[in-house]
Structures are given as structure tokens and as C-alpha cells.
């Protein structure tokens, strides 16, 4: 077996993977297509370029899941976190960085590493030989995209995300909502009660449609197209086509009886579906949207039962190449059909700079362990990194899989703690304490 690890893509994930593997004693070649081949979002030839915001989001490692991910990556001597720290600029509780010096310092440290070299070229296939990590991100070049598609099948590779908003189950008002599948369909009680329903009367529906039409929307980035729309029309575009259209689509009120008011027929019903096996997260069915985040939360809280909704992630539609990881990858991030290929970063269906770098960290360490004749098991699902990999390689529903940010809804509950808004602070502290202990145990075992 070759002792060299090849990494395609020198973004957040590829840079971190290269660093981790090289630190573990493995030779690494990073294959990066920029600056020879450009993308519509990248502006430089630097590795780890931040394409939009300059923020790694909250740095609070006690009360915030992404802050916890920072903590875990720092504890694992992550390059991305070290460079972020060295180029930090004031941003309150967030970790914001001076983007060009940040990317330059990542590039310099990788180039200076005795076990790392960079080859500036586009890779257009999934090689049969050697150990590879594909970390080509949301803007994977189209030739490589076609090669991935040929290997995985068209259904398993998406070129756009269409994210419906995801809500914490515990923030839904069940005195208004109820669980029932349309026409009570299903073999088991669980299937017959698989959906969570929120009813609207006529006035509520009309006010909701007005708010949808008036809400601020985001525009497509240059280079994006809207040609994918037919399969996943945003809810507000549906309303633009006709005020009654959503009522004949995702908001249709048929086949459902409200147990709180069985004698009243709802004018429209919004349905939510479980988003993870734990049952802690629900997505709003058919509500992919381009509404801006602030407007979106306001409009969605008009839905009866969701007045106090807390969002694990808001909806969106972006140019985004990602694979159906729950069906394609094993828990070592290897392609089941071609195990010499691993995937890492945003292309695995995580979302964001930090989450992508964290998946790079794992893939780099797992590949290095394999090249050195060992095997590295994934970290516990109680850690932030572990919760993410558990989600993408099995915890998420494969049929409706869409990119995911890290959030506490992905964590198994800590027993014996109060639910709801009141108990939140203690709960989050318990999640982060548990995660830190288990992450340290995993690191100790991995570094043996
Ligand atoms: C327009 C846009 C705006 C975004 N804004 C934000 C934001 O504000 N905050 C946030 O957290 N996330 C944002 N994201 C998501 C962000 O891009 C990712 O979270 C993060 O950069 C993903 O890291 P990655 O390593 O997976 O991919 P990237 O960082 O994109 O790195 C992938 C690398 O692979 C290279 N590459 C692609 N194809 C090939 C090939 N065939 N051969 C060789 N090299 C190749 C690319 O040039 C690139 O350098 C945005 C994404 C887009 C598209």
C-alpha cells in the first residue's frame, strides 16, 4: 500500500485533513485546482480561503455547539483553529478573523511542513489506487462532480441544497399541534403518527400568505442558476404563483383530524417530519425557502404551535454539491463502493467553515491511521465532532438528507435534566461537559 495520502481540495477540510495526517507521520499531497481553475466564490489562490463571512461563529464552548466544536479542534491541535486564533479580530462572543492573513498563514504552515506538498491541478476522477480524501466543497468542479455522480448514481449527488427550516421538538406547542400521518397511513403506530401537524384557520392562512409575500428574500449569487426550481419550489414562490397554491401543496388540510378541536375543519395544515433518529429535531415539510433569516423566523412563528419555535437551522437554497452520506459512507468516512476514497468537508453534507474543518480533521486522522496499518474509530456521538459524523453517516434520514450545521439537537439527551427553555442553560452545560470528557478520552486513545 502506498504511504502517501492524496487530498483533493485545499479548503477548510482539505487543509485540516492534510495537517492532521502529516502530524501523524504520513506524507501528504494536496491537489488544489485554484488558481488555475477558478470558482465563482473564491478570489485568491490561497488554501483555506473563506468565501463569504469572516466568522467562525460563537466561541462559547459551554453554551454553544459550534463553540464546543472550536474547543474540540483546539484540543486536537487543529491548524484551522490555531490560524484563526492568531488572526483573531474583535467580534464580541464570536470568533472572527482577518481573512487574508488567516488563509496566508494556513497556506504557509502547510507548505512549510516537511511531509506536505501542494500540486496545483484539477482532479477529474475518483482514482482506483492509493488513499484519497475528496474535500472539494460546495463548488466541486463539474468534471469531478460528473465522476462522483457516475460512481454514486444521480440520486446520491446534489448540486443544490434545498433546506427546509429545522426546529427543536421541545420548542413546539403540543397543546396546538398533534402527531398524525395523513389518512393514518402506516403499518405501525410509529408510522401512523410520524408527522407533527399545525392547523390554521382562514384568517391565519391569509395573514401567513401576506407575510410570505412581503418577506425579504435573498438573491442568487452570481454564477448560480435557478434552473433546479421545479423539483423544490420555495414556499414563497408557490404563494406568488397563487394564494391558494400552498393549500393544494404542502399546506393541504386533508386526511388529518385535530384532536384538540375535532369538530373544526382546519383551512390549512403545516406538517413537520422527524429530522433525526433521536426525534429531537423536526423539519417543516415542503418549506424550503429563500426568505432572509430574520424575516423567516418571524413568518414561521406565525404558524400555530410554532410561536415559540427555536430553530436548529433556518431554511435556504444554495449552490452546493453534496453526497448522500447516510447511504454512501461508512463510519470511517469511506465510500462503501470504493473504500480507498474518503470524503470530508461540506461535500459530506455538513455546512459551514468549522463543521467542514472538523470533518477534515477526522478524515485526515482516520486515513493516517489506516495508512499506518491501524484503525481509528469515530469519536462518541456525545461530542460535537462525533454528533456530526454520527448524523451524516447514519443518524440523519437518508431520503430527506440536507446539509446540517452542528447544534445540540444532534446530541443524545443527558438524562435527568429539565426540558424546555428554562432548563436550557444547565442542559447545554451538561452537554458540553460530557462532550469535553469524552473527546479527551477519544484523543488519548487515538494518540495512544
Ligand atoms: C457562495 C458561498 C458562500 C458561503 N458562505 C459561508 C459563510 O459565510 N460561512 C460559512 O461558514 N460557510 C459558508 N459557505 C460554505 C463554505 O464554503 C464551506 O462551509 C467551507 O468553505 C467548506 O469547506 P470545504 O473544505 O468543504 O470546501 P472549500 O473550502 O470550498 O474547499 C474546497 C476546495 O476544493 C477545490 N476544488 C474543487 N474541485 C476541485 C477539483 N476537481 N480538483 C482540485 N481542487 C478542487 C476548490 O478550489 C476549493 O479550494 C459558503 C459557500 C458558498 C458557496
TrEMBL record:
Known catalytic reactions: uridine(54) in tRNA + (6R)-5,10-methylene-5,6,7,8-tetrahydrofolate + NADH + H(+) = 5-methyluridine(54) in tRNA + (6S)-5,6,7,8-tetrahydrofolate + NAD(+); uridine(54) in tRNA + (6R)-5,10-methylene-5,6,7,8-tetrahydrofolate + NADPH + H(+) = 5-methyluridine(54) in tRNA + (6S)-5,6,7,8-tetrahydrofolate + NADP(+)
Record's GO cellular component terms: cytosol
Cofactor(s) needed for function: FAD
Entry EC no(s): 2.1.1.74
Keyword flag Flavoprotein: yes
Residue ranges of domain MnmG N-terminal in the record: 5-373
Binding site for FAD: 9-14
Recorded family membership: Belongs to the MnmG family. TrmFO subfamily.
NCBIfam families per record: gid_trmFO, PRK05335.1
Record's function text: NAD-binding protein involved in the addition of a carboxymethylaminomethyl (cmnm) group at the wobble position (U34) of certain tRNAs, forming tRNA-cmnm(5)s(2)U34. Catalyzes the folate-dependent formation of 5-methyl-uridine at position 54 (M-5-U54) in all tRNAs.
Name of the protein: Methylenetetrahydrofolate--tRNA-(uracil-5-)-methyltransferase TrmFO
Gene assigned in the entry: trmFO
Amino acid at each position: 500500500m502506498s504511504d502517501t495520502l492524496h487530498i483533493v481540495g485545499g479548503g477548510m477540510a482539505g487543509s485540516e485533513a492534510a495537517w492532521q495526517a502529516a502530524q501523524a507521520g504520513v506524507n501528504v499531497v494536496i491537489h488544489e485546482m485554484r488558481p488555475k481553475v477558478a470558482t465563482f466564490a473564491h478570489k485568491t489562490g490561497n488554501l483555506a480561503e473563506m468565501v463569504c463571512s469572516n466568522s467562525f461563529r460563537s466561541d462559547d464552548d459551554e453554551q454553544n455547539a459550534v463553540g464546543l466544536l472550536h474547543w474540540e479542534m483546539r484540543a486536537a491541535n487543529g491548524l484551522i483553529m490555531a490560524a484563526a486564533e492568531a488572526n483573531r479580530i474583535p467580534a464580541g462572543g464570536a470568533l472572527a478573523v482577518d481573512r487574508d492573513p488567516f488563509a496566508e498563514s494556513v497556506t504557509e504552515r502547510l507548505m512549510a511542513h516537511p511531509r506536505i506538498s501542494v500540486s496545483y491541478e484539477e482532479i477529474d476522477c475518483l482514482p482506483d489506487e492509493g488513499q484519497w480524501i475528496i474535500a472539494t466543497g460546495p463548488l466541486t468542479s463539474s468534471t469531478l462532480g460528473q465522476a462522483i455522480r457516475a460512481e454514486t448514481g444521480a440520486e446520491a449527488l446534489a448540486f443544490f441544497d434545498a433546506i427546509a427550516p429545522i426546529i427543536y421538538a421541545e420548542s413546539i406547542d403540543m397543546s396546538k399541534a398533534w402527531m398524525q400521518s395523513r389518512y393514518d397511513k402506516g403499518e405501525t403506530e410509529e408510522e401512523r403518527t410520524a408527522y407533527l401537524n399545525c392547523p390554521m384557520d382562514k384568517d391565519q392562512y391569509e395573514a401567513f400568505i401576506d407575510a410570505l409575500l412581503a418577506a425579504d428574500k435573498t438573491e442568487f449569487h452570481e454564477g448560480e442558476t435557478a434552473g433546479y426550481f421545479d423539483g423544490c419550489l420555495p414556499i414563497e414562490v408557490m404563494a406568488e404563483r397563487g394564494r391558494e397554491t400552498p393549500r393544494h401543496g404542502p399546506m393541504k388540510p386533508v386526511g388529518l383530524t385535530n384532536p384538540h378541536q375535532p369538530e373544526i375543519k382546519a383551512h390549512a395544515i403545516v406538517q413537520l417530519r422527524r429530522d433525526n433518529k433521536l426525534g429531537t429535531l423536526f423539519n417543516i415539510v415542503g418549506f424550503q425557502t429563500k426568505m432572509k433569516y430574520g424575516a423567516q423566523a418571524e413568518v414561521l412563528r406565525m404558524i400555530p404551535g410554532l410561536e415559540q419555535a427555536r430553530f436548529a437551522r433556518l431554511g435556504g437554497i444554495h449552490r452546493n454539491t453534496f453526497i448522500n452520506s447516510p447511504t454512501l459512507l461508512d463510519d470511517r468516512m469511506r465510500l462503501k463502493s470504493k473504500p480507498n476514497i474518503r470524503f470530508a468537508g461540506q461535500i459530506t453534507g455538513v455546512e459551514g467553515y468549522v463543521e467542514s474543518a472538523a470533518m477534515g480533521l477526522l478524515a485526515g486522522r482516520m486515513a493516517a491511521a489506516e495508512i499506518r496499518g491501524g484503525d481509528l474509530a469515530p469519536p462518541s456521538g456525545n461530542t460535537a465532532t462525533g454528533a456530526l459524523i454520527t448524523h451524516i453517516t447514519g443518524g440523519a434520514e437518508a431520503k430527506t438528507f440536507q446539509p446540517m450545521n452542528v447544534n445540540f439537537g444532534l446530541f443524545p439527551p443527558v438524562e435527568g435534566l429539565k426540558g424546555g427553555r428554562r432548563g436550557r442553560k444547565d442542559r447545554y452545560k451538561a452537554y458540553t461537559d460530557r462532550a469535553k470528557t469524552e473527546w479527551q478520552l477519544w484523543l488519548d486513545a487515538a494518540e495512544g
